[in-house]
Specification:
The complex is a heterodimer of chains A (about 140) and B (about 190).
Chain A lengths: L8 H21 L3 E4 L10 E4 L5 E7 L7 H18 L4 E7 L5 H9 L2 E5 L4 H18 L1
Parallel strand pairs in A: 3-4, 4-5
Antiparallel strand pairs in A: 1-2, 2-3
Helix pairs in contact in A: 1-4
Chain B lengths: L1 E7 L5 H12 L5 H5 L7 H7 L2 E4 L3 E9 L2 E8 L4 H16 L4 E8 L6 E6 L2 H6 L1 H22 L6 H27 L4 E3 L1
Helix pairs in contact in B: 1-4, 6-7
The chains are: A alpha/beta (about 140), B alpha+beta (about 190).
Chain lengths: ~140, ~190
Amino acid sequence: MARIELSSVSDINKFEKSAAHRAKELFEKAEWIVEEEPRVGATRPDLVVQSPDGATYVVDLKAGRGSAHFGSVAQVATLREEYQDVREVEDVRGLLVTNMATEENVLEAAKSLGIQVVPVRGGPSEMAQELFAQIQRDELEK
Amino acid sequence: MYAQLSVAHRFLSRASLRAGLEQVFGPDDRAVIERSEVCSANSEAWKKLIAYSIEGPTYRLVCLPARNDELQVIIEPIGDEIRRACQSAWNGLRTALTDRPTLQSGEVCDSGSGRVVMTAQTGFAVELRRSEIVNLTIVGVASAIWVAIGAFTFARSHRWELFGGALPSLVGGLIGIGTAIAFWRGAAIRWQE
């Protein structure tokens, strides 16, 4: 597999959009309801996924180099809150899917806010597959 | 729009980190977290996690140490251009963290989607690669090589004339390198869209 360079803004955005698109295809195949970049109030999460039994997941995909920033965790918390307020849905889960390293303090912040961090290695396909697998696991554990 | 920076610095405890930041930016203000656009959701949880926050006339600054040698910062401009706000915050952080902290990464993100809009870089190589500097430097270096070759071969008997002819481009090269050094030492942040 070709090495993925994430040195420019367009590389990062292409990676994230490609991963979102592939994840959408996976969820649609499994007959889940999925929205890619829906407009939710003033926000635009990468994906909103609804399982057949109605559980809702707001997903932010974050590609880059180095360590994941706590700002990305805060962003997911904002997306989740906005979704709950605008669509009047309760019990929405927030997921940050990232190929960046995640430091202990950032993980702790995510845990305190009830945001799940999904670490991923590889390209957009791997990111999409890991997101799909993680949500399937969460559904089974419920 | 907001910016997120990751800054590598020497090993610092949470208390000494906060003391350094307070010395430069002023006393920590927890109320800033409630006004923050980025940390507004679950602000009570953020208050327990954030090490330092402050609001100045042109930007809001929220800091969380990812490790004992890495500080993560959110900068939210208030009526100022985001690049100027980031440069001002970065200048303050360099003073507060001492011992040459380095900007590991920097991004400007869209508040609505979190999408990266610009990335930040600092360093001598970054300055040297800027188009207005790289052209001057290449011409200067090429001229210096040409003068060196000529002085020992085809222009052995006209060294001063050769040097005189090449002088403008040599000066241009020196100005290019000098400018790169000056901006590097001033820790200018360069943005890529």
